[in-house]
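We emphasize that the prediction below concerns an isolated chain of 192 residues; any contacts that depend on oligomerization or on bound cofactors are therefore not represented. The input was used exactly as deposited, without trimming of termini.
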Amino acid sequence: MVKKKTWGIYCSSIARTSHFVRRIPRYGFTLLEILVVLTIMAVILAIGVGVLSSVLKGDAKTSATAEIKQNGSLVLDVMSYFIRNATALNGNPPCGASLSLTQPDNSVVVFSLLPTDNINYNNRIASNSASLTNGDIKTGVDVSSLTFTCDTTTSPPVVSIDFTLTQARKANSTMGLATSEKFHTSVSLRTY
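Result of the prediction step, given as a token string:
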């Protein structure tokens, strides 16, 4: 008599039928298999969270840099326009922390640095007290310096503008990112 092993093993701990031991199929996983799968899933999840975090920080930094450049370009464009069209520089000395210009219609335009207040928590560049930079606490920019240098020895006079913009104060503290940009230009008055 030849014994055929169809699908079982010889074992005394599992139910016996006739001459050989028949294995009862068990459905499920062992504890070791579950731990291995959980470990692999934890590693994949940790890598995914790290990648997602890097992408979000990069996006936040890109947005902050774009906001800073947009505000800086606007300020330079507005100031350049008014300086080019000015008929005179006011004050003695005419430059420093603020700049006063007489326009062709005899109106006076003053550019200055507005400090923080109860509404705007960021320093702002202003034209006649109207803010030129975004002073929003989360998405705006903070002006850390503003300097005007005038060369009145040339004809026409030349005004140099220097300022530094940084990411909004609240955004710096929440994201842990500090983005800043320096802006500089020189503009000459037109003499008609």
